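G., the chain you wanted modeled:
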Amino acid sequence: MAFTFSHPHASRLALAAGLAVCAPFAQAAVLDFEDKVCARSQPICNVGEVYRAKGYVLSYAPAPDDEHPIGFHVVGRQWAPNVGGSIALLANSCNAITTLASQAGKPFSVLTMDLAEANADSPSRVTFTGLKTDGTTVRLAVNLDGKPGWQRIVLPGTFYNLISLQWVQGDCVDNKSHMFDNILVMPGISTR
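Predicted structure as tokens:
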């Protein structure tokens, strides 16, 4: 089926309308940690307690009883359990909290994230808690399969209008640690 436009600017108007609908996705960003050069030549290296990129910030907070907090580490392709993966991030302490927020403090949405067990030694469970601008919270618990390799997690449409997103590293005993990569985020306060 072909459409013809009688107005001389109709095709430009249609294009502009289409771009307006896709505008939030045009501002989407993927936090992929590829800027951490040390992971290109090392299996794992320390990057501190804060990671900033593309208008977002990831913050590390150790467990209250952690006497030797370690911080974030980037995991390179040489890390054996990073099967088929790119450079990833790891909160390298048992029960450490990772918090994702906008650097400008603006609302954002989280669409997807890749997760894998840090040592590929047993299944892990990761629970995400999003704090919304109205003070309510949304939660999602994800069970990883315990096999080497990455699993893409699609967060439900309720993970929009967030001020922060938090998740806790495994306890390293019953719930093993995990690494994360390719966090797809976008600004905005409306549902997807």
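The radius of gyration is 19 Å.

Shout if anything looks off.
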